[in-house]
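Field log, afternoon session.

UNIT: design team B
ACTIVITY: writing a sequence onto a fixed backbone
BACKBONE:
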């Protein structure tokens, strides 16, 4: 598993492999090493996960889904799989709209734009919270972290 030296997009993969008790090489590269590596990467970005004797997987969510299926964290039932998938996509949408909350203020973002971004973020969070309330859960994946 190759990524930069930080949590970023890779920590969920590290956590999944750790939870599945699967030893893995946690290769962490700096920007100089990444520049050399980039042309060899299937999508030109990190994280990547090299399957033993197999393919180099890339794109965080598909890597998580493939490993989730392999190590039985991903539901076999279509309705439950759908729930996991819409939650993942909604969290990504919320993350993308929420990024502006901690970036330095961009003078090109006027108040109207900021308000509409925050409104979208708020709607997504409400949708996610409703799922937890409706299912009487504290965690999206089940009864515990
Ligand atoms: N959708 C991709 C995005 C990957 C991505 O943008 N990775 C960043 C690090 S978080 C990266 O490698 N940036 C350097 C580059 O693309 O040159 C994923 O989820 O894996």
């Amino acid at each position: 598993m190759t990524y930069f030296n930080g949590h970023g997009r890779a920590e969920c993969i590290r956590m999944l492999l750790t939870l599945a008790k699967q030893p893995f090489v946690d290769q962490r590269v700096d920007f100089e090493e990444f520049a050399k590596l980039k042309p060899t990467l299937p999508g030109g970005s990190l994280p990547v996960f090299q399957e033993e004797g197999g393919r180099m997987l890339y794109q965080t969510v598909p890597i998580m889904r493939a490993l989730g299926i392999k190590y039985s964290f991903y539901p076999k039932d279509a309705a439950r799989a759908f729930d996991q998938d819409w939650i993942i996509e909604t969290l990504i949408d919320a993350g993308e709209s929420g990024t502006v909350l901690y970036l330095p203020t961009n003078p090109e973002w006027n108040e109207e734009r900021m308000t509409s971004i925050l409104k979208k973020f708020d709607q997504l969070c409400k949708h996610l919270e409703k799922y937890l309330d409706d299912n009487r859960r504290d965690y999206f994946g089940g009864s515990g972290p």
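LOG NOTE: The pocket of glutathione is lined by residues 8-9, 38, 44-47, 59-60 (CB under 6 Å).
NEXT ACTIVITY: expression trials, pending approval
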